[in-house]
Design goal:
Blueprint (H helix, E strand, L loop, with lengths): L11 E4 L15 E5 L10 E8 L10 E4 L15 E12 L3 E3 L1 E4 L5 E3 L6 H14 L11
Antiparallel strand pairs: 1-2, 1-6, 2-3, 3-5, 4-5, 7-8
Length: 144
């Protein structure tokens, strides 16, 4: 079910890339993403994300960042494996593409969602790898 709220930077969500994209763009229907942007005036219902994968890149580049399995929820999408941020795959998407990560069901079958956010150090590393992925590595020195 699509979200109806603005997610916070560092939150993990699932994004549906199956409609409107063509290879070599992302085309999977349920790809994990990390939220990069907060609520920006004039961009209602839009958010910038970076794609993730549990498959290690053939060649690890400066636009890749490995998140340890302990930083991710224990769900079918992550299966206790490390997750790789793909800093060269950045998108601005509408809320209708995003879904919260369900981690189980509580009393009465109510869904429980993963709401943790990545910490400042991890987000700084992610912002650096995104800058490398955009060919703007000269700005990495300004990320704190």
């Amino acid at each position: 079910m699509p979200i109806s709220y603005h997610p916070k930077p560092g939150q993990l969500m699932l994004c549906d890339f199956s409609q409107g994209f063509k290879e070599p763009e992302m085309i999977k229907s349920s790809r994990p993403v990390i939220i990069l942007s907060g609520n920006i005036v004039g961009r209602a219902s839009l958010v910038t994300v970076v794609a993730c994968s549990t498959v290690e890149p053939d060649v690890v580049r400066n636009y890749h960042y490995k998140l340890p399995a302990r930083s991710m929820p224990k769900t079918k999408h992550f299966m206790g494996r490390d997750t790789w941020v793909k800093g060269d795959m950045i998108y601005t998407v509408a809320f209708h593409r995003l879904d919260a990560v369900c981690i189980g069901r509580g009393e009465g079958g109510k869904r429980i969602y993963y709401n943790d956010r990545l910490g400042r150090e991890q987000m700084s590393e992610i912002y650096r790898c995104v800058l490398h992925g955009m060919g703007m590595s000269f700005l990495c020195q300004h990320v704190v």
